[in-house]
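Inverse folding, one chain.
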């Protein structure tokens, strides 16, 4: 594990409840993207030590396992937060820096860069060779003039990929960010994201502002270096924006700040590329800002209707779901038309634990794909599924849980409160003593949780201690998720499909 991994793991070990990526990013003064990258290394390390890192949508991270094993990991690591390593002169940083210089400026001599980094000319040549090999593997030729959206987004995403490889093991300081992207453009992009990424909070995934900042770093530098995109023949305008809208005003203000700071004007197809880039990251995705022919509301209603039918749930009248679906649709279409790929860090959790919902979204989204001539990636399916996951939770029928506790009244209340505070609120818990069990109508319950051995064959049973720990409650949570899925499947099998 790297020093960054150790810092994050030490912090996670000190927490007793779920904490979001933004919490850890703020505590360690790194980006949320860095947290997601390093969490994968931590997950592997914990697995090797008999622990697990649980990630839940909207809640965050939690280390699950016995306190003894957690203490063993603490002793192994030591609790001293490591000092941040200086990576300025590492080969990895040099290559990232040189890659940027290839894209954003006139390339200088090997000797110039050798003197900058205090290394030999031969070392710099090897660095350039490594970058060239990466470009070849990604089928990118920088010798030809770039004019199409497809070529440009391919180049920009290749650099993003290279940057991501670096950030998996190190973070960029503010000084290094300015060295690579220039202090002026770094400030313009950072200020814009900070001022605008919260304006459309109902469509913002926490990963999107990070992605937008990096995208603006690259695109604004490319324009400064002379990027001149042109419109291909037989081109169909995608997402034509009306004049005098919030979106057009935001774009105008950004381009004016950029022009006054760099002396470069963004116009023509470069400007249209910028519109799609901002829209693709959820900036001002208001359906009223576009021509009516796009039918965002109509297509969103069709999608919700199909998913409702598949899940056997009545989601058609959920006004909040319709709103977030419309506002999600616009940036999604912009991203896919631009060729911009973004990653959903929760994709694995959603596909594993909410497979039914994700599959329903995937099969129901074919109409959206045909109408807008796009193809949804697994990450886009996952991002879209999150809205339906939240809606399903709102409409979820209660699970009835019978809690049997053999301890006294005070301890029994503690057990009940522990379960109530750590399980989804739509579940109904009934607390009884073992002596009352024979009088209960067990067919009214979905799950039995007990602190003592009981003989019940008609109900799934999970045992916990009288002082339940997080790792004991976690299996109950996932059993309830399974019960919810089974109820949805049962409802779908008896509910006639809604006519299309």
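Residues assigned per position:
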């Amino acid at each position: 594990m790297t020093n960054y991994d150790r810092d994050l793991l030490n912090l996670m070990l000190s927490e007793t409840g779920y904490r979001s990526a933004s919490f850890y990013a703020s505590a360690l003064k790194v980006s949320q993207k860095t947290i997601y990258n390093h969490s994968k290394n931590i997950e592997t390390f914990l697995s090797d030590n008999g622990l697990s890192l649980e990630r839940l949508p909207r809640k965050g991270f939690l280390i699950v396992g016995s306190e003894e094993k957690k203490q063993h990991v603490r002793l192994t690591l030591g609790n001293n937060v490591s000092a941040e390593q200086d990576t300025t002169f590492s080969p990895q940083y040099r290559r990232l820096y040189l890659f940027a210089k290839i894209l954003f400026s006139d390339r200088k001599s090997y000797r110039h860069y050798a003197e900058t980094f205090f290394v030999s000319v031969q070392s710099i040549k090897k660095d350039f060779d490594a970058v060239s090999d990466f470009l070849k593997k990604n089928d990118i030729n920088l010798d030809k003039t770039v004019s199409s959206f497809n070529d440009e987004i391919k180049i920009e995403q290749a650099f993003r990929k290279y940057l991501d490889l670096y950030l998996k093991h190190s973070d960029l300081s503010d000084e290094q960010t300015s060295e690579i992207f220039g202090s002026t453009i770094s400030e313009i992009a950072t200020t814009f994201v900070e001022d605008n990424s919260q304006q459309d909070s109902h469509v913002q995934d926490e990963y999107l502002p990070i992605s937008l900042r990096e995208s603006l770093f690259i695109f604004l530098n490319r324009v400064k270096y002379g990027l001149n995109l042109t419109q291909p023949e037989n081109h169909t305008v995608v997402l034509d924006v009306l004049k005098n809208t919030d979106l057009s005003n935001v774009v105008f203000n950004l381009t004016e700040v950029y022009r006054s700071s760099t002396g470069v004007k963004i116009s023509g197809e470069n400007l249209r590329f910028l519109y799609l880039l901002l829209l693709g990251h959820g900036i001002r995705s208001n359906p009223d800002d576009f021509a009516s022919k796009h039918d965002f509301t109509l297509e969103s209603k069709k999608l919700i209707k199909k998913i409702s039918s598949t899940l056997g749930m009545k989601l058609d009248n959920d006004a909040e779901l319709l709103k977030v679906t419309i506002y999600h649709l616009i940036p999604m279409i912009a991203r896919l038309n631009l060729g911009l790929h973004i990653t959903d860090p929760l994709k694995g959790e959603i596909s594993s634990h909410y497979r039914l919902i994700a599959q329903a979204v995937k099969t129901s989204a074919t109409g959206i794909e045909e109408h807008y001539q796009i193809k949804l990636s697994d990450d886009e399916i996952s991002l879209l599924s999150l809205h339906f996951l939240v809606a399903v939770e709102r409409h979820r029928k209660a699970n009835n849980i019978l809690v049997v506790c053999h301890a006294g009244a005070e301890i029994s209340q503690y057990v009940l409160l522990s379960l109530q505070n750590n399980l989804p609120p739509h579940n109904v818990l009934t607390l009884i003593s073992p002596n009352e069990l024979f009088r209960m109508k067990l067919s009214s319950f979905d799950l039995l949780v007990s602190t003592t051995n009981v003989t019940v064959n008609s109900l799934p049973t999970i045992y916990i201690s009288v002082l339940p720990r997080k790792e004991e409650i976690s299996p109950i949570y996932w059993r309830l998720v399974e019960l919810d899925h089974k109820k949805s499947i049962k409802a779908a099998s008896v509910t006639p499909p809604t006519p299309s």
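Strands lie at 52-56, 60-64, 400-404, 428-432, 447-450, 461-463. The chain has four domains: 3-77, 182-288, 295-395, 400-494.
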